[in-house]
Amino acid sequence: MIKGKADFKLWAGIGVSAFFLFLLFRSIDPDKLLSALKEMDYRYLLPALVLTFVSYFMRAVRWKYLLLPVKETRLGTLFSSTLIGYMANNLLPARLGELVRAYSLAKKENIPTPTVFATLVLDRLCDGFSVLLILVVAFFSVQLPPGMEKIQHGLVTGGYVTLALYIAVLGFLVLLTRLTDWTLGVVAKILGPFPERFRTKVLELLSSFLGGIRFPKLPGEISGIIVTSVLIWATAVWPVDLVLRSFGIALPITASMFIMVFLVFAVMVPASPGYVGTYHFACVTALSAFRIPTEKALSVALVIHAMGFFPVIVAGLFVLWRDKVSLSALSHETEVHEG
Question: Domain map of the chain by residue range?
Fold first, then answer.
């Protein structure tokens, strides 16, 4: 049954990717695309690549802070599991990399897999708040070219809406942890018009979330999570700026933040492993707001995607080889735990 679901998700994702690739390449001039790639200054790639791996390493550091209430874990093990997880996300369907990442660490550190996965839920919440903050900053500060005033106005409006959403989610989480029974009661009343099965499921998920989550409480640990979150996204946005400069595109750093928001939303769309198609379409769409020619925008998208695709696959496969672990065996064990 699990294999059938995975196969369906894989083929559905491939179909989504093929659709977006068709939208991208139907009006592309291949000669202009190749010309843009040839004119690229490749000296920017090495620092961009180094920063990309620094971002992965900082993710491991933040994960260490999130695991402190559970166990003191080894940073080297955390970094290895992070690389394996991101490699798996690029090779396996349905974002199984998150489960592979959790199972890999659980096996090495002898921690229950659900407990490790709960820390990854916190990890994603940290990312969500970080991206919302980046989105707010980008929408309020990015300056689009003349003639794009309507889009600029829409961005500012989007900034206000996102800021309100950010505050609402943060407030809800605070109430959920401080006034749990009262908050669950309010949620139950809000869900009153919905079917009982749905209401029960939502309340069970919220209760399970609270039961499995142990957020660090010491000021130093919380500060570590905040600092590493800033560094994770700073070292993720900076390579985008470097790739833009390699193509002779000089835009403020807020433009790279703007592009990063589009890329983050792109990886949320169910697509083929590695987010092929959706990732490129989102990047080209973001760059079109700055009136970058389509062929050059697609060239940028191809390079940014390749930077986050091939190197981490090589690094992840090296870690598996070093640890004498099979990716197929690891993914099978992960699917068994998921089932």
Answer: 2-338
